[in-house]
Amino acid sequence: MTHRFLVRLFLALSVLTIARADPLSEWKDYDNALVGIHLTVKRAWTEIFIKETADTGSVTFNLSAQPHGTISVSTEKAQYPFEVWMSSDVLLQLYEPGYAPPVSVVFAGRKSKKLIATAKDKEGRREETYFVNRSGYIDQITFSAPEADWPLFEPDFAIVRKSLRWTR
């Protein structure tokens, strides 16, 4: 075999390998050290990251503009004890009356309070929020979409819920 033949063979196999390579997945792993989270998100989702201080901030993924679906993760300094944060006096500032009381669950490996309620925003979206009390901080993960459109987003929400894990 000549050197030229081997080069041509190598190039042909390289082209074949490139042509057969799998396209990028629709999903990707995402890590954010500031909010301390790992999750799987769709590449097409718009990411909005806000760093408030060296150890507080949020990341939001816009799944769709219309209908408006989002997934948000935030960490903030606890200004009040966790029990006050979860009290109806505080929650009624954020959510419409009539929600069921938060329930204790383990979510993403941590003890959490799960709340499903309608947000007091101009869109009145349904929110499924997990609140975590972490020594001096409140971590929060929220899945949000209009109630009527929730079934459209639930398959993606389910994949993200399953992939979530705290990294700090």
Describe the protein in words.
With 168 residues, this protein is an alpha+beta fold. The protein has a single domain, classed as Protein Transport Mog1p, Chain A (3-Layer(aba) Sandwich). Helices cover 26% and strands 43% of the residues. It is built from four helices and ten strands. Strands 3-4-5-9-8-7-6 form a seven-stranded antiparallel sheet. A three-stranded antiparallel sheet has the order 1-2-10. β3 and β4 form a beta hairpin. The protein is globular, with a radius of gyration of 22 Å. It starts with a helix and ends with a strand. The relative contact order is 0.17.
Secondary structure blueprint with pairings:
Blueprint: H1 3-20, E1 27-32, E2 37-42, E3 46-53, E4 56-64, E5 69-77, H2 82-85, H3 88-94, E6 103-107, E7 110-118, E8 126-134, E9 137-145, H4 150-163, E10 165-166
Antiparallel strand pairs: 1-2, 2-10, 3-4, 4-5, 5-9, 6-7, 7-8, 8-9
**Span between termini:** 57 Å
Could you tell me the strand content as a percent range? 35-45%
CATH topology: Protein Transport Mog1p, Chain A
Q: What characterizes the major β-sheet?
A: 7 strands, antiparallel
Number of strands: 10
Choose one word for the global shape.
Answer: globular
What is the H level of CATH, i.e. the homologous superfamily? Mog1/PsbP, alpha/beta/alpha sandwich
Cα gyration radius (Å): 22 Å
CATH architecture: 3-Layer(aba) Sandwich
* Helix proportion range: 25-40%
Count, helices:
4
Q: Please give the order of strands in the largest beta sheet.
A: 3-4-5-9-8-7-6
Keywords:
seven-stranded antiparallel β-sheet; three-stranded antiparallel β-sheet; 43% strand; 26% helix; Protein Transport Mog1p, Chain A; alpha+beta
